[in-house]
Design a protein that fits this description.
This is DUF431 domain-containing protein. By secondary structure, the chain is α/β, with parallel strands linked by helices. It is built from five helices and eleven strands. Helix 1 runs parallel beside helix 4.
Length: about 240
């Protein structure tokens, strides 16, 4: 079963948000090609964190005219998506229980696996080499686990985005910037291990790399800061 998921019409690029900015797009020959971004979902559920990331990827894919596949989703889970994600049913996101190798749209010789263990970094020149980009849907593990190893069995060519751990939506975002906007990895502004203010007395440091916004803030999906605050409150309550 495949579900089509797209961005909400009420989402308006440019709306101010404490930790959300819209990245400018540029028109280049490479950007004119339709790309496919595939996240192999590697968990038994789709939690609140993943839901926000998948919504962000879907929204940005729609804006760039690319496709977003969420693959290897258990059938029972595909039929019971979180309501906030189900609201996006339509292009560009397609949710399927099939593995990436079973998608007829995917040609193995044109697929890039984003692999932290790959020797070669992703570069703008790869826009002429690859059409589809595959990610493991647990890139944001802390501490990092080499779950991408489960995807190496497909034999796809690998590229890495640097040695610092990224969230899944950040990895897709950075790939899009390199491939569609032709920005070298070294030229992209990053916010590494940002410290987020939870309230006037508390803060938390995120163990990931993000794309940096105009004011130096980490680019996060809408609602992520609030979710982080909620999780921090729950952790604090566990002490009592």
């Amino acid at each position: 079963m495949i579900l089509q998921v797209c961005n909400r019409t009420e989402y308006i690029p440019g709306i101010a948000h404490p930790f959300l900015i819209m990245l400018p797009t540029t028109s280049t020959p490479a950007a004119g090609k339709k790309r496919i971004y595939v996240v192999e979902h590697m968990e038994p559920e789709i939690g609140a964190w993943s839901t926000l990331e998948y919504i962000a990827i879907s929204t940005e894919s729609a804006a760039s005219g690319s496709d977003f596949y969420l693959t290897s989703v258990p059938p029972s889970l595909a039929e019971d998506l979180p309501e906030s994600l189900r609201r996006y049913i339509d292009a560009p996101l397609k949710v399927t229980s099939r593995e990436v190798t079973q998608l007829p749209e995917i040609h193995a010789d044109r697929v890039c696996l984003l692999d932290p263990q790959a020797v070669e970094e992703l570069s703008p020149a790869d826009a002429d080499v690859f059409e589809a980009f595959v990610f493991g849907g647990i890139l944001g593990d802390d501490p990092p686990r080499d779950r991408t190893a489960e995807l190496r069995k497909y034999g796809y060519q690998g590229r890495q985005l640097g040695k610092i751990q990224m969230t899944t939506d950040t990895a897709v975002r950075v790939t899009r910037m390199v491939i569609e906007e032709q920005q070298p990895l070294a030229k992209i502004p990053y916010a590494d291990y940002p410290e987020l203010k939870l309230n006037k007395n508390e803060s938390t440091q995120m163990p990931f790399r993000y794309v940096k916004g105009k004011e130096g803030e980490p680019y996060m999906p809408e609602g992520m800061l609030e979710l982080i605050k909620e999780d921090a409150d729950k952790s604090f309550d566990d002490f009592f």
